[in-house]
Structure formats: structure tokens, C-alpha cells
Design brief:
Layout (H helix, E strand, L loop, with lengths): L3 E4 L4 E4 L2 E4 L2 E4 L3 E4 L2 E7 L1 H12 L12 E7 L2 E5 L5 E3 L4 E4 L3 H9 L4 H11 L8 E4 L3
Antiparallel strand pairs: 1-2, 1-10, 2-11, 3-4, 5-6, 6-7, 7-8, 8-9
Helix pairs in contact: 2-3
């Protein structure tokens, strides 16, 4: 349960920080910088960590499975989404949201909110998203 939203035109990726485990939740980091890219994962934390280690390590060896996760990757070349097969899909419109609050964030953005406000709105609606909001900017 997560909200991650990226706006390639503004060069930002915004996320909530609520991670659920059983009947409780705790804050966690959902967006990481890998080289000149921002990578945000929604889904199974362990899958995301395993995939990030492989990706940041030069993509050596077999690609780890992310069949229970989805990711957004924002870099100088644009925005793409990694779906469960691990294949990247270019997001040509330049913005997208993933996780349980992703659709809410997309709707808020399309209605005029900026990326940060869109994630705040998603967290107000989606019970699986919350905690502090983190704004990550592309460098340069």
C-alpha cells in the first residue's frame, strides 16, 4: 500500500512513507536515487530491495523477480514504469502514479494539483497511504 507519483516535466518523484505490516505501520523510504535516476517501488518491499541491489550493481546476473511489485523510474531520458515482468514501459504523457493511491494522485494531478499536492490528496483518500510526504528531485 503506497502512493508514488512522478512528474517528468517538473523532474520530481513524490511518495508517502507508510509501510504496513500486520496490524501496524511504520515509516520507510520508498524512492531511491540510482545514478542519475529516481526509482520508486510499490508492492513487496523485499522484491524492491532485491531488484534495486541488482539494478544499482550494474544489472549483473539474472534479473530478480518483481511479480508482486511495480516501479517508476524517472531519469533524464524520461519516465518509465516497470511492471511485474520486469519490462519497462515508457510513460509518454510524462506523469504517472503507482501503488494503492496512485490513481488518486493521477486524478488530483490532472485536476490541477502539483505532484506534491497530488500525493497529499491521495493520502487523504487512500487508507493504505500516509505518513510524511517526501519530494525527490532529479539532479541538474
Amino acid at each position: 500500500m503506497t502512493t508514488i507519483f512522478a512528474d517528468a516535466n517538473a523532474g520530481v518523484m513524490v511518495c508517502d512513507s507508510k509501510a504496513s505490516a500486520g496490524d501496524s505501520w511504520f515509516p520507510c523510504t520508498k524512492v531511491r536515487r540510482v545514478g542519475d535516476e529516481l526509482v520508486g517501488f510499490a508492492g513487496m518491499y523485499v522484491e524492491g530491495e532485491r531488484w534495486l541491489k541488482w539494478y544499482a550493481g550494474g544489472q549483473k546476473g539474472p534479473r530478480p523477480s518483481i511479480e508482486n511489485s511495480v516501479a517508476l523510474i524517472l531519469g533524464p531520458q524520461g519516465l518509465r514504469m516497470l511492471e511485474s515482468s520486469g519490462n519497462g514501459i515508457a510513460i509518454e504523457r510524462g506523469f504517472h502514479g503507482v501503488g494503492s493511491g496512485g490513481t488518486c494522485a493521477i486524478a488530483a494531478f490532472m485536476a490541477g494539483a502539483d505532484a506534491e499536492r497530488a500525493v497529499h490528496i491521495a493520502c487523504d483518500i487512500d487508507t493504505g497511504s500516509g505518513g510524511q510526504i517526501h519530494v525527490h528531485k532529479l539532479e541538474g
